[in-house]
Amino acid sequence: MRDLKHLIYFEDLLQEAHNELVRKGKEDGNLALGYTCYFMPEVLLDLPGCFSVRLRAPRCVSPDMATYYMSGRTCHYGRSLFERALEGGFNFLDAQLATETCTVTCRFQEHLKAMPDVINNVKFKVSFSDVPFKKNENSIEHYEKQLQAHVLDFLKSEYGVDTSDEAIMRAIIAHNEVCRIIREIGDFRKLDEPTITGYEFAVINLVSMCCPKYLIIDKLRETLEELKTREPDQRKTYRCKVLLAGSENDDPEFTKLIESCGALVVCDRYCYGAVEAREPIEIREGETPLRAVARHYLLTSQCTRFMEQDEMRYRKKRIAELAKEYKADGVIILSNKFCEYWSYERMIDTIVIPRDYGFPVCSIEKEYINSASGQLRTRFQAFVESIEIKKLQEGAK
Amino acid sequence: MKKALKVLGKIAAIGAAVYAALFAVFYFDLDGKALFKFVEPTLVKHYDNMPRRDPMSRPYGDKPTNE
Amino acid sequence: MKKPDLNKIKKLAKDFLYGKPHGERRLGDLYEPKTGLYKHREWRGVKDTFYYFNNIWLYNYGMMVADIMKYGGLITFAKGVWRYRWVGQSYLPVMHWFDRGLEGVRGEALRASAWHYRAMVNQTIDQFMRMFKADQNIGGSKDLYDRTIAHDETVWGGVFYPYRDQLDDIPLQMIPYFVTCHVNNHTVLNYIDATQALGLPGDPCPMCQAECGLMILDDEPDYYPAFITTNEACDASVATSVIQDWMINKPLYAMPQPMQFDDPLVQEHCAKEIEGAFRFIEEQMGVEFHWSELVKHLEEQNELQRFEWEKWDVAANTPYYPITGTAQALYRIYQSQRGNRKIWHDTDKRVRKILEKCVEQKIETFPMTRHRVIAWSCAPLYYSHWCTWAYNCWGLNCVINMDSLMFDMTIRTDNYDDMLLDMARYHEWAPMRRMAVGGMQHIFELWENMEKFHCDMVMMYDQLQCKGMQGVHGLFEDEFRARDIHAIWMPHSLPDKRTVSRAEIRQIINDYMFTVMQEEPLDPSLLEFDDGEGW
Q1: Which helix (H) or strand (E) holds A140?
Q2: CA separation for the pair A326, A186 (Å, rounded)
Q3: Span C442-496, pLDDT tens digits
Q4: Is residue C247 part of a domain?
């Protein structure tokens, strides 16, 4: 396939959190608002005068200072973020919109609150929202109240942001446009012969979360147009298709590693890469824009935090449904080391998905930044081979 | 009367002997030793060899009801 | 012929009558190597030895039989023992659990602490016998099965108060996991290994791993038609709910508590989830909400709380508090989590008499105290009795601990709405959670509690797999230095003695006491001994 015109530019943007477009967004007089979790609706951080930045710590391989504070026995992602903060890499942030949705990212954000000197920006403040564990009416109501108090009211009172319904509506419209583009780009992955690789998609999707949307949208549009005429390679460059599911992952190199072993990643279902994250927000009749946002983010999320019985069961089915929809031959389940949610979920999925839904699973525990790529490569190669053997056996039958 | 006293005496003597024996069990931790060296290993052997169901073999799909 | 040394005879007689003074006891010499068994039990002087023998050892063995008879009979008990590892391995060594927790303890402290243990044993028997009587795995009663609801051990028993006259609530893991770890730490290792054998990494909370293992190994009684779970205390508890749901495969209600619990906005949401639990119980169990029953139990529970406050007052402000650190921690967490039961009131009545006596007569219950210690974060279950060792060896008197301070409130009963909001708050303040979530300010309540309880040292539990506590490690170090506080980090792995053994824990404390505090032990025989194979 011919190279995507903006791919190198996008890759460059992902080399650091404080990238060229974030700088530009600040120069334009906007507030940079950090967040770490899908439960902090990015659309509310993209209100007029603000832009959202989903925090990453690219190339952080040795979070030594953060390890002093958070010990070596916590998630590498949370520690890397704190390391980057201690290094001054997040000084551009004007506020952190925090959630207590998993322990270690919460602790990272609490450190920002407890150690106000870490972020060298006088404006900087942290506001925490409580996120429910269920998807019932009570939870939506609660979530809406939280977003009102700890996001909208906070932004209005501390920074004078316009948080009116009209402003939220404008943000939703802009957000939906980004979602439409990303979804359309993602749909090329459903083709029998996909015209986009998993790596390329991961880069494009991440860029849309880490840069001011108004500054990146044109290039996203162009990329979409480019993809419409892109032809697949004459000769297939992959041996099977896989779905990648699991915990936090903002490292496109990981997807590249999988693809270099012959498995094309056709669908993502992990934090920072969930297909659901780019579903457009629909405002139902009688709903305020905020209510729609609260409902949307609770109901679309497939986070392992949800505890209702049918949700806990559906999550497994959902992976199988996506694998089917995207014509995947197998599923790779990843969990970050020390991620408690996904340690369990990965163990369960590894048993349930092959047995009850018929998709082979490769179960991986990884670090935030992968240093043990040789071991992982061996695992992925073996998985690809096992899928090929399975296909051969099925063909023989 | 004398007989009754004798019986009572006997009961008291047996009681005292039992009490003394129990005190010996207590003081020399004979209960602990017996449990540690004989009872627990026997039970562990039993539990280790017990046939058990495999709850993991149950499919994990639709929601159950009590109907 | 050599003249007998009168002084020596006098000393022997005195030691026989009153027990050896603290510095001469050499309690470490009583252990057999490795097993933690005693060559002989401690001689505490005539009065205390016979108190221990009659009122603790004989009495409790007797009561263990009596309780079994009272709550269901020997046959049911035998069936349960034969079927479930956790009860067979853990029930019989109960008296050794008493021994470990009461080593070196004398006088009123011995009496008051032992009553706490007795109450916990009674409630343990009550619960597992109810499980067995209703257990469909061993031919239990279907009628009782239909009148018993199960819940995660971190769901407060008070949620079931409105139905206590119609059903009983038995936590799923309180006895099979929590209690057994204290009594016999061998058992739990099977469950942890079973979970890891399925591919779970070793780093998630071992409590949750063990709870999963119980189900994976089919070692949970089948005594209930429905189940209530919760997100307490941490991410791993949430994740464990999935295993619970899969293994149990019965109607399940999740009753999560908010994380940011200081926020007044979360209370209504939390209260509604509790009401959801009420509806679930009513639908699944066919019972009715009885307001009077709820009020009765809440008021009785408030009485228990008020007495706890009185106890804290004595512990904080006098040297007369007659309860060991171990008994304080275990009884409080057990009682508050289980909810209102008659035995707690009976026990508190007895303890109150002893407490009042100590205060009135100014009895210094731990006279060799060199440092008043507060224990913070979550404790090693396999070494909850470190407190008695630390006092005997070093004079470290553990006055209070974090888990004791959790449910620090009474609940209003004059109207439904306030009551519900208080129940929500009560649940939010559960053990392992009150200080761990909702912001770092909670975990740093340590400083005010140190002051309140007049403590000069911190035993900082360092649960190696607790992400919440690991994630705040450095700030504690900074604060300890800034405030010039002596703190000993005690690494452990909650129920799993293989990660950090009891001997290693003792060594860490010894090292600190020698090198930093520059102190000498009160009982050098306790410095080093091997109890690695002990219960």
Answers
A1: helix A137-147
A2: 10
A3: 999 999 999 999 999 999 999 999 999 999 999 999 999 999 999 999 999 999 9
A4: yes
Q: How far apart are CA C533 and CA C535, in angstroms?
A: 7
Name the domain count of chain C.
1
A310: nearest CB among B56, B59, B63:
B63
- For chain C, say whether B23 makes contact (Cβ under 8 Å): yes
Domain span including residue C55: 9-526
Token pair in block for residue C268: 């209504």
CA C409 vs. chain centroid, Å, equals: 19
Domain limits, chain B: 2-49
Spell out which residues of chain B touch residue A355, defining contact as CB-CB under 8 Å. 59
Is residue C532 a part of any domain in this protein?
A: no
CB contacts, 8 Å: C465 with chain A = 73
* pTM (2 d.p.): 0.96
Q: How far apart are CA C217 and CA B29, in angstroms?
A: 33
Interface size B-C, in CB pairs within 8 Å, comes to: 81
Reported ipTM exceeds the 0.85 cut:
yes
The Cα of A84 is separated from the nearest Cα of chain C by a number of Å equal to 16
Query: C191-225 burial by CB neighbour count: b if 16+ within 10 A, else e?
Result: bbbbbbeeebbebbbbbbbbbbbbbbbbbbbbbbb
Q: Does C233 sit behind a cis peptide bond, omega within 30 degrees of 0 on the bond before it?
A: yes
Q: How would CATH label the architecture of A236-396?
A: 3-Layer(aba) Sandwich (3.40)
pLDDT, one tens digit per residue, over C260-269 is 999 999 999 9
Residue C531 lies in a domain: no
Domain assignment of residue C535, yes or no: no
Contacts of B56 in chain A (CB under 8 A): 351
Task: Name the A residues in 269-328 with CB < 8 Å from any B CB.
Answer: 309-310, 313, 316-317
What is the domain partition of chain A in residue ranges? 236-396
